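BUG: 3D viewer hangs when loading the predicted structure for this chain

Environment: internal workstation, default settings.
Expected: structure renders.
Actual: progress bar stalls at 90%.

Input used:
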Amino acid sequence: MNLSNHAIEKMGYRRRHPDESLTAEFSSISAFWVQGVALPERAVIMSKGLVDGA
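Structure tokens produced before the viewer hung:
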């Protein structure tokens, strides 16, 4: 969907001036549910890896 500059300004957005700075922070949380795995009580398993190149 293409919006005109006028429509974007009516939504409260405006062009950033060259002397203004912009700071952003992004985070991501992925949760997976595993069923049918039996582990001993108080077992701690640590693993690192990439999923789908992420």
